[in-house]
Design brief:
single chain; 103 residues; mainly beta; 4-stranded antiparallel β-sheet; 3-stranded antiparallel β-sheet; 1 helix
């Protein structure tokens, strides 16, 4: 982006999205996972959980300033295995791997 001039709004948006963070705890999970989103500010997004085969398991809209979600992995939709939790905000994606293990 050298040599390009960006308006103040573009810089501000990029700055806010660059602070975006997604945390999962505990991981591996046995019953409930706390999903924490930081740096969302005035943006809205979507959280999704996809299994290893690419099937959508869970989806939740994320409102501005909303930062925590509880995900119950004891639900019948969650078998033991690996999942991908993705946060999509504007054109930015953050994906974290989640392991569900009830053994």
């Amino acid at each position: 982006m050298r040599g390009e001039q960006l308006g103040a709004g573009a810089d501000l948006t990029f700055e806010k999205l660059s602070n975006l963070d997604l945390r999962l705890a505990p991981n591996p999970a046995t019953n409930v996972v706390l999903i924490t989103v930081d740096g969302l500010d005035e943006k809205e997004g979507i959280l999704t959980v996809i299994d290893a085969t690419g099937r959508l398991i869970w989806q939740q809209s994320v409102a501005a300033q909303q930062s925590t979600f509880l995900l119950n992995v004891l639900d019948q939709t969650f078998a033991d295995g690996m999942y991908f939790v993705t946060l999509k905000v504007a054109d930015k994606l953050i994906t974290k791997r989640l392991i569900v293990s009830r053994l």
